[in-house]
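Troubleshooting log. The previous structure file for this entry was overwritten by mistake, so regenerating from the original sequence record. Sequence copied from the archived sheet and checked twice against the printout by T.R.
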Amino acid sequence: MMIYHDSRQGIYRSPGGAAACGTVVTLRVRAGEVRSVAARVWWDGAESIHPMSPEGQDLYACEIEMPEQPGLLWYYFRIVDNENRLWYFGNAADQLGGVGELYTSEPPSYQITVFDGAFATPSWLRNGVMMQIMVDRFHASREPDVNNLPAGSFYHVHWDEDPVLVVNDRTGDYCANDFFGGDLKGIEQKLDYIAGLGVTVIYLNPIFQARSNHKYDTGDYKRIDPAFGTEQDFRDLCAAAKQRGIRVILDGVFSHTGADSVYFNRSGAYGSGGAYNDPASPYAPWYTFKHWPNDYESWWGIQTLPTVDKDDPAYRRFIISDPDSVIAHWQRAGASGWRLDVADELPMDFIQDIRRREKAIDPEAALIGEVWEDPSNKVAYGKLRCYCMGDTLDCTMNYPLRDAVLLFMRCKIDAAAFVRRVEAMRENQPKAFFYSQMNLLGSHDRPRALTILADVGEMEPERAQRRAFDLSPEAYALGKRRLIAAWRLICALPGMPCVYYGDEAGLYGMSDPFCRGTYPWGREDGELVEAFREAMLRRTGSAALRTGSMRLSAAGPDVVTVTREVAQGRDAFGMAAQDEVAALAVNRASESRWVEYDGRTVEIPAQSAVWLELSPARKAVEAALQLVNRPQSPLAAHMAPAGNF
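Regenerated output below.
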């Protein structure tokens, strides 16, 4: 008996990938020496069996109409052989789609993400390049004023000192009470540098008043932290950024507040009110007290971060729906959208409400979520959640891609495994979502990418590894070579590349707080800065790299090749664009490898990524095609029909 199904080949699943509501998907199985084949489909807690009809030699097919509501549809195949034995054919054991496996018992199912056909993301996401900035650590415009700091906090004497890890012996939490003096005006002063890198989006870690240096313990959602500046400083930053073609995204921390906040006010810093001091406070219903005032629900048990009841009507009005809600206020002040902290800990309808309000204010505003796993099928608090259906997020922080890139570059997975992981993302996510993903290598929550790539730290280290350290010249050189290659790979893939401030300048460090060092102004690794700049500017200048179709392949265990293409005058979204081919080969091995490209053999040096150039003859052909396919008028770019993925 022979059974075969590959969810990523059009002959077996058409159309492939995620499917819009109400569309019809044809499933096929190649099966020999069988009596019958049926597709078992699971939707919304119920199964249905769809007999498959012969369609040519050894090919069986059925059509499945997608539901009218977004959700996740699952399927596998039941086969009865000529001896009346029942077999199952389902997803591979790693559940990453593609070629499946034969089982004797119920197998893992294939996934079809069913999304709202009207789902669209702001085009500036897929066309953009992002920089993430922690304000305190980027640039100081003035001498810091100690009067702007909470009690018990301090400024470092020198900008280039290491962050410190001061742990509270009672709670085990680190205090995050050391500051360096970076502010919003400081970012504004460096906008020319940021724009010169090719950055079109700045994502700011929290900027609202709070006790800590990281500001994830919000004290007042309506006030800029005085150490960072004023609301006018924020408005000025957004305006100056806009003049350079740069948007600003804010961090929305809505799952919890700080204990020292105007809303909870445990320390009394905000007077006599607050839920901790007054059970009749208007803010008291925001929190869940097991025994008032000291026994309350908090984020991951951290008492300085009391959890907020996201279902409380007053809280929802304050954050979302009031005329001057938090969402409305800061968008009107200049923000182009939000990154939702711990989005997978927020109720889905809470995110939906934010999306509706945000888009009502500005249809081009973006909503990005912190989701560390596959955003199409994340299990959180016992519930399966899909953030790709068109009713919640525009995209997420692409930690799965980060992990795949770093593992591949460190020889922990091979090229085929890397390709398989990325293709699973493409298969499970609607095209608009996949092309908008925030593709990062570093963040404030993980060790610096250079540290990981230098093989001196783990991707998810124990707290004991949190320390300041120096890299040896050999380790730094290894990490740098790999980092340049990894960043070029990020810039070659669909999605929005995001550089964590200072990664491009040579910063390294273990996890929080040592991944949050200050930008090394005057001490940058100039070669690394230029390598990042080259990749980012190449990206922003290439329609193929931004919105072209993608072919991803493994050339042996050590080399990944990415080819992006605009063909016949249309990009992957069917929008008018000049024909173009852009290709990259990444070699993670410690020796050179060779790939075939455009009829030539090209050497890829050890631990490097090389942009592959077309031959002169091919370039001439491409130039001629561009003349033929050039849009006839600017209006054509807006009238183009949607294309195939």
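Confidence is low (pLDDT under 50) at residues 627-645. Archived copy saved in two places this time.
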